[in-house]
């Protein structure tokens, strides 16, 4: 019988192991079982302010342990957290490499469930952290990475418990504040292509003093990455893009937009191209182009041409393959953190902590382009005489011209962030009404500075003057404007060819617009918790407290940007200038309704309410949830909440920043047009209101120790959601007759086929999302399966199934957009890991990935018999996006008398899988940014990392 039982136990464990592997490979997510830890230490994890032995909140919580983080060996903890399926669409250095105008380059901010990083509250030991940009988001990279003991991810509305901004949930980084000893790490890595070389060094020290009543911590870190300034990946050389189908006519059954390879510009080259259309009076000059030294040649057009882009032809010459946008920025960081705490009495501890961080990042954004918007006059002094004569013979005085400004240095983004955070607080216990109460309070001051520069931008007023070069009466070449204003300082610029301009000419038409901003946060918070009385099922727990917070932003920009951001083709942005205050108070309780009954092992009610006072009114948030354990090992939970988020500094006060965009013009049969989008804040915004509902089951069977599983359904709706419309949406609304949208569109002065589009955030009608979070973990000893084999195996699977995410602008002429399954938010995100620890050696492997999708759910895919294409529902030949699964592995080896030393080796994306292509277009320059979804796919390729840790 004993052998049969052992056999049954082994078979059961093997079966569960296999099932976990199968389920995890299909999909897994992040919902709530307690973490697998490597010590017997009791870890208290809660999705509420109430902390009570044995209580687990109804709000789903997922935990990342220190050991998981160390196994991943990522250079930044955000890299690992972002692999969690419930974290989708986060801001990372890769996704923000081209985001110059807002200063986001290099920032790591977290986005729960794809709802938005501004709706995710990031805390450090349960306390607020100041933002590093005008949206107020926290850069996770500035936290003391080496002291983080775990990460608690609370999915679901948490405003009532944790405060404003927690509309989608909370990510709380928990520090080991009692660390004693000295530990350090040094590591380095690079990709399989030999680029993005990086290094990281960190050192932490902790010690007690005053007989153990005091404790001191000091932790520092420095890291650097070379970046991938020029995107030379093979997948980036294929030239896949969307292009308008020149054969499309309404009703002819063809798609309006084609998906094709080798797409490049048809109206511009590095040295310039005469950009006459095929039907214009100057069509005989179409495609005349200029190369090194002004050498003339004819651009070879491909079989599919839809100005300003084409497929085929001289793709290799003007696709700018070796001068495309940075894939990931160059960056260097330094962080310093210190903490001192002291027991002023047996139950009272005071503490002070300070942190400082610095980040400098640089990326390139290509030269920008003026694809067909310039006017080249027949009397231009640099124009070959033969070409000038042909223009005159056609009865014309000028021709349209396009250039990628090959003589100008590549435009870049240089961002510098500095942050300081100081916190002073007290934690203690006191007696009241015959019971023990806990008090914690703190004051925080945070200050971040941003210096954001767009390097080598084109100064458009000077450029327009300089390219209009003519012969002076004495035969010299001057600007036409100089003939009437001899002291204007204009230096003529040669549009004809490359290598033809002096440094003086280049300096006259380029500059470095910049923004300098300061962001401040002040927080005062007090929280009290206790158990004032008992009921039949146990003690009633309550927590209450108050918080007051101020946020402010100030700054300056260069004079030309302040006067008109449109003076530059790329700017460092204008600062946000303004401030606001938030005051709130909350009460939360846990009421036990049943305990050790025949029908319930436990039943607890969790309720919270918070009053939040903004400058434009007072708003109420609440949470009501329950967790029910009918039998040991089975827990049912559910929660409903009302949440609120105030418009942040960027939403309300952002100065104008400019971005280049393009759109299909429905007034011109979908023809390509370009736009300068002028974005700014809107001081008249109202807070957005969210409603969250979730329900789930947690299973921890007693007959299978070490196994945990959970599944949770969630539904979130946001009323008055703060968001901005895209350029195409504004154009489509105007085309549909929305006069408010039309008022935002004006033609760019002095340009043809280019528009300025003003854009501000609005309180849109609603956003509604729902999905499933799943999680399972199993830990067992190998000896339970193979008696002669030592070591421990841990399996963990996570997945999020995004069922729907609908965005309704609520404006006349607008349509509802479904985000799920489209670019940026796949139906499934999943991660499955398995690790084996045996003495000094451990191995781990991870499979992570996303499901297939489409570019846009409003697009209609068809190759023939297509319906008539419309502005809201255009027809495309192919909108598919491939699924992807990536495999990672890690090996760790500990040595020394007490295994205090450790070597580790890590490989991400072992198979070197390329990202799925997400074509750009069908308008503008298809190479202004990589044709990929950086938020969902691994874009660097295989990455190696080797390092050494010690702890003494």
UniProtKB/TrEMBL annotation:
It is a multi-pass membrane protein. Residues 665-684 are annotated as: Disordered. Residues 56-170 form the TonB-dependent receptor plug domain. InterPro entries: Beta-barrel_TonB (IPR000531), Beta-barrel_TonB_sf (IPR036942), Plug_dom (IPR012910), Plug_dom_sf (IPR037066), TonB-dep_rcpt-like (IPR039426). Residues 429-910 form the TonB-dependent receptor-like beta-barrel domain. Residues 1-29 form the signal peptide. Its main location: membrane. The keyword Zinc does not apply. Keywords: Cell outer membrane, Membrane, Receptor, Signal, TonB box, Transmembrane, Transmembrane beta strand, Transport. It holds the Pfam family Plug. Residues 665-683 have a biased composition (Polar residues). The keyword Membrane applies. It is found in: Cell outer membrane. Belongs to the TonB-dependent receptor family. PANTHER family: PTHR47234, SECRETIN_TONB SHORT N-TERMINAL DOMAIN-CONTAINING PROTEIN. This is TonB-dependent receptor. It comes from Sphingomonas naphthae.
């Amino acid at each position: 019988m004993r052998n049969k039982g052992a056999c049954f136990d082994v078979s059961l464990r093997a079966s569960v192991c296999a099932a976990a592997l199968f389920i995890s490979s299909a999909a897994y997510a992040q919902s709530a079982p307690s973490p697998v830890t490597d010590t017997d230490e009791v870890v208290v994890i809660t999705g509420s302010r109430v902390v009570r032995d044995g209580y687990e909140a109804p709000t789903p919580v997922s935990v990342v342990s220190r050991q998981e983080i160390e196994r991943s060996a990522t250079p930044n903890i955000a890299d690992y957290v972002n692999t969690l399926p419930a974290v989708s669409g986060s801001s990372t250095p890769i996704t923000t490499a081209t985001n110059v105008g807002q200063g986001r380059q290099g920032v790591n901010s977290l986005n729960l469930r794809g709802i938005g990083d501004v709706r995710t509250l990031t805390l450090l030991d349960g306390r607020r952290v100041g933002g590093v940009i005008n949206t107020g988001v926290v850069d996770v990279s500035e936290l003391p990475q080496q002291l983080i003991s775990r990460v608690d991810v609370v999915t679901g509305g948490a405003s009532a418990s944790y405060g404003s901004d927690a509309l989608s949930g909370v990510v709380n980084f928990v520090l080991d504040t009692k660390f004693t000893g000295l530990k350090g790490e040094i590591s380095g890595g690079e990709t399989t292509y030999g680029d993005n070389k990086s290094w990281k060094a960190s050192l932490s020290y902790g010690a007690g003093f005053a007989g153990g009543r005091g404790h001191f911590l000091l932790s520092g870190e420095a890291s650097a990455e070379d970046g991938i300034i020029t995107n030379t990946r093979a997948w980036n050389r294929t030239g896949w893009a969307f292009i308008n189908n020149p054969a499309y006519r309404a009703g002819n059954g063809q798609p309006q937009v084609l998906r094709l390879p080798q797409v490049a510009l048809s109206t511009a080259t590095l040295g310039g191209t005469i950009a006459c259309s095929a039907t214009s009076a100057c069509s005989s000059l179409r495609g005349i182009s200029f190369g090194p030294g002004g050498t003339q040649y004819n651009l070879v057009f491909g079989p599919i041409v839809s100005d300003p882009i084409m497929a085929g032809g001289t793709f290799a010459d003007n696709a700018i393959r070796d001068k495309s946008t940075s894939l990931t920025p160059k960056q260097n960081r330094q962080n310093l953190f210190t903490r001192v705490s002291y027991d002023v009495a047996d139950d009272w501890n005071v503490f002070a902590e300070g942190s400082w961080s610095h980040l400098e990042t640089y990326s390139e954004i290509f030269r920008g382009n003026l694809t067909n918007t310039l006017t080249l006059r027949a009397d231009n002094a640099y124009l070959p005489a033969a070409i000038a004569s042909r223009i005159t013979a056609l009865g014309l005085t000028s021709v349209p011209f396009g250039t990628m400004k090959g003589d100008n240095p590549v435009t870049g983004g240089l961002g510098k962030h500095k942050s300081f955070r100081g916190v002073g607080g007290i934690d203690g216990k006191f007696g009241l009404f015959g019971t023990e109460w806990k008090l914690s309070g703190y004051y925080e001051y945070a200050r971040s500075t941003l210096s954001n520069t767009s390097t080598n931008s084109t100064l458009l007023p000077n450029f327009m003057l300089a390219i209009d070069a003519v012969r002076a009466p004495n035969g010299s070449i001057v600007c036409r404007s100089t003939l009437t204003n001899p002291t204007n300082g204009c230096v003529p610029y040669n549009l004809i060819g490359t290598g033809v301009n002096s440094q003086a000419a280049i300096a006259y038409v380029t500059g470095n617009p910049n923004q300098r901003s300061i962001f401040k946060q002040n927080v005062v918070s007090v929280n009290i918790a206790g158990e004032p009385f008992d009921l039949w099922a146990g003690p009633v727990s309550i927590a209450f407290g108050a918080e007051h917070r101020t946020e402010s932003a100030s700054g300056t920009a260069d004079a030309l940007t302040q006067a008109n951001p449109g003076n530059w083709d790329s700017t460092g942005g204008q600062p946000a200038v303004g401030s606001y205050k938030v005051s709130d108070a909350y009460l939360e309780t846990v009421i036990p309704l049943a305990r050790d009954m025949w029908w319930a092992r436990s039943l607890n009610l969790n309720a919270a309410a918070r009053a939040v006072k903004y400058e434009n009114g007072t708003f109420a948030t609440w949470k009501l949830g329950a967790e029910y354990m009918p039998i040991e090992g089975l827990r049912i939970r559910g929660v409903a909440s009302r949440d609120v988020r105030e418009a942040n500094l960027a939403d309300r006060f952002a100065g104008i920043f400019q971005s280049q965009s393009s759109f299909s013009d429905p007034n011109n049969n979908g023809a390509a047009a370009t736009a300068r989008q002028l974005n700014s804040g809107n001081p008249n915004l109202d807070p957005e209101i969210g409603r969250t509902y979730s329900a789930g089951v947690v299973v921890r069977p007693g007959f299978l120790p070490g196994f945990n599983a959970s599944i949770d359904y969630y539904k979130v709706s946001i009323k008055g959601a703060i968001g901005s419309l895209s350029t195409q949406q504004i154009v489509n609304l105007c085309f549909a007759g929305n006069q408010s949208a039309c008022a935002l569109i004006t033609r760019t002065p002095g340009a043809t086929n280019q528009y300025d589009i003003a854009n501000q955030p609005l309180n849109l009608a609603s956003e509604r999302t729902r999905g499933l979070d799943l999680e399972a973990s199993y830990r067992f000893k190998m000896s339970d399966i193979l008696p002669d084999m030592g070591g421990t195996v841990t399996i963990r699977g996570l997945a999020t199934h995004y069922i729907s995410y609908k965005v309704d602008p609520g404006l006349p002429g607008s349509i509802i957009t479904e985000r799920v399954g489209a670019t940026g938010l796949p139906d499934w995100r999943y991660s499955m890991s398995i690790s084996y620890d045996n003495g000094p050696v451990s191995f781990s492997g991870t499979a992570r990935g996303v499901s297939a999708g489409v570019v846009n759910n409003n697009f209609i895919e068809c190759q023939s018999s297509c319906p008539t294409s419309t502005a809201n529902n255009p027809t495309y030949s192919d909108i598919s996006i491939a699924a992807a699964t990536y495999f990672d592995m890690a090996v760790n080896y500990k040595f020394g008398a007490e295994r205090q030393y450790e070597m580790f080796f890590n490989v991400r994306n072992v198979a070197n899988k390329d990202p799925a292509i997400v074509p750009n277009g069908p308008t503008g320059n298809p190479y202004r940014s990589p044709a990929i979804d950086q938020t969902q796919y691994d874009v660097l390729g295989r990455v190696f990392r080797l390092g050494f840790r010690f702890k003494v």
